[in-house]
From TrEMBL:
Protein name per its UniProtKB record: Uncharacterized protein
GO BP terms, alphabetized: glucosylceramide catabolic process
Matches recorded under SUPFAM superfamilies: (Trans)glycosidases
Residue ranges of every copy of the Glycosyl hydrolase family 30 TIM-barrel domain listed in the record: 43-401
Family, as annotated: Belongs to the glycosyl hydrolase 30 family.
Entry keyword Nuclease: no
Domain Glycosyl hydrolase family 30 beta sandwich: 407-465
PANTHER family registered for this protein in UniProt: GLUCOSYLCERAMIDASE (PTHR11069), LYSOSOMAL ACID GLUCOSYLCERAMIDASE (PTHR11069:SF23)
Pfam families: Glyco_hydro_30 (PF02055), Glyco_hydro_30C (PF17189)
């Protein structure tokens, strides 16, 4: 078993021995794994190489730069297999830019990426040549938008694409894929738009389901398929919630209306989801009052989407601990563990973090002050005081990435305890059982596979990965377990999502 915890033990390995059992008893806490009950196949884990992240890496000393890239992509590191790029500038960029300032094809150029992103990307590709890349736009050139502004401002402003600009924007996005291909960068997934129902104060654009379907089926889809048939389109790329912003659609409504359009399935193969709480969620309001981040636990919306669109992939495309830098703190690590395990239990096939690296102020940014945490920070980059900080969140993501390499398969598991868990079948037939103990007490449970039981001790506030050998015996009969209704599950998380912000607002401990 490999453990990382709040006490500062990271990547700690422990040998756990098993014993033969003839039955599973409800009197003992257990998690039973069923490797033969296969579910979704994973595409892998990764993060985002934003201009901000690339600028910090570029500014760092060569030794620090090598440490960062090895930590993420090296054989002894996280072994990230996925990478997200921004098409043009985003909120986490050091300057605003697009690739075509004027409405003429000849002006298209990736030159802005050459400042920070492209040099680091080439270094990553040397270390991990098979990394799968997705790219997402935050906003097109301003002359393509109704508002003639790249920033979103607020929901009262029309932040949509001009209907007359649809052909030009399709050309723009395809030219991006063209230009990256000429540089040896293959774009596997092209997101239609980051957060397409958010009018953010930084680069943003909104899409109605009808406009998105028209754009994809008549313009972007055919052009992309003709030139890059291996590149598929992702939609939504936003929160799991149905409560986004005033007058905006939520996840269920938008996706239902979009997929009702004939023809979209031949071009679109996935939806992206983020972990943030939406603006109209009560958790977000409490979080804003307390100065603490809030995140989305509407995992059942993922089940609903999967039932309606079983052939579409669900990819978690962005997660970041907001409202501060969070250096060396456990809270972001715990949230990653919670979100990842529950995503995997609700059909999610891949997981991408946000910025790979940020500086000591949770930036840099150019459009708005929005300090965020990152798994790795570099303080005073490029100076004699330079310091590399690897936060606990990194070790959670590292463990998950190593256990969820492309082709690994989610398998069923069950428990008679309130314990976040998920199981992943490995290429060699073994199974990884991920267990998170979010309590301040030691918890002991039996991990059961076939006729073998392994007694595991979960330290307080810990994320654990248990390697179970290949199953050689039939599953034992599971004792009756009363499954908690969804509404009560959310109520049981009341302390984390609702009371924690209040506690912190009052200066109390969690």
């Amino acid at each position: 078993m490999t453990t990382t915890n709040q006490a500062g033990q990271h990547d700690q390995r422990h040998l756990v021995t098993g014993k033969h059992i003839d039955h599973v008893s409800n009197g003992t806490g257990f998690v039973q794994v069923f490797p033969n009950r296969r579910r979704q196949t994973f595409t892998g884990v990764g993060g985002a190489l934003t201009d901000s992240a690339a600028s910090v890496i570029q500014k760092s000393r060569p030794q620090t730069r090598r440490q960062i890239l090895t930590a993420y992509f090296g054989a002894q590191g996280a072994r990230y297999t996925n990478l997200r790029l921004t098409i043009g500038s985003a909120d986490f960029s050091t300057f605003g830019y697009t690739y075509a300032k004027q409405a003429t094809p000849a002006t298209f150029s990736l030159k802005p990426d050459d400042v920070h992103v492209s040099p680091v990307l080439q270094q990553i590709l040397k270390q991990a040549p098979n990394v799968q890349i997705m790219a997402a736009p935050w906003a097109p050139p301003k002359w393509m938008k109704v508002s003639h502004r790249r920033d979103g401002q607020n929901f009262l402003v029309n932040n949509a694409l001009k209907r007359s600009a649809m052909p030009a924007y399709a050309d723009y996005l395809v030219k991006y894929v063209d230009a990256q291909q000429r540089r040896g960068v293959a774009i596997k997934t092209l997101s239609l738009q980051n957060e397409l129902q958010a009018s953010s104060p930084w680069e943003a654009m909104t899409w109605t389901p009808d406009a998105a379907a028209t754009f994809i089926t008549h313009y972007l889809g055919p052009k992309l398929k003709a030139r890059h048939p291996q590149t598929k389109i992702m939609v939504w790329d936003y929160v799991k919630s149905d409560a986004t912003q005033p007058i905006m659609m939520g996840f269920n409504q938008w996706t239902q209306k979009f997929y009702a359009h004939r023809g979209v399935h031949q071009y679109v193969d996935s939806v992206g989801v983020h972990w943030y709480a939406a603006s109209l969620n009560a958790q977000m309001s409490l979080g804003n009052l307390s100065g603490q981040p809030a995140w989305d636990d509407n995992f059942n919306n993922l089940d609903r989407f999967h039932r309606q669109q079983p052939l579409q992939q669900i990819i978690a495309t962005e997660a970041a601990q907001e409202k501060g830098v969070w250096l060396n703190q456990w809270t972001p690590a715990a949230r990653y563990g919670y979100d990842i395990i529950n995503d995997f239990e609700h059909h999610v096939q891949g997981y991408l973090d946000w910025n790979l690296v940020l500086n000591g102020q949770g930036g840099p940014t150019h459009a708005a002050v929005n300090p965020c945490g990152a798994p790795i920070n570099v303080l005073h980059a490029g100076t004699s005081k330079e310091q590399l900080v690897i936060n606990p969140a990194y070790y959670v993501l590292k463990r998950v990435s190593r256990d969820v390499q492309p082709g690994a398969v989610s398998v069923a598991s069950t428990t008679n305890r309130q314990l976040d868990h998920t199981a992943i079948l490995q290429h060699d037939g073994s199974t990884r059982l991920l267990l998170e103990n979010r309590s301040s007490q030691v918890r002991t449970v039996q991990a059961v596979i076939g006729h073998r039981a392994y007694k595991v001790r979960l330290t307080p506030h810990s994320f654990n990965s248990l390697r179970l050998p290949k199953q050689t015996a039939k599953n034992l009969k599971t004792p009756p377990i009363t499954h908690t209704p969804t509404s009560l599950k959310r109520l049981s998380r009341f302390d984390n999502h609702w009371l924690t912000p209040i506690y912190r607002f009052l200066g109390l401990q969690d």
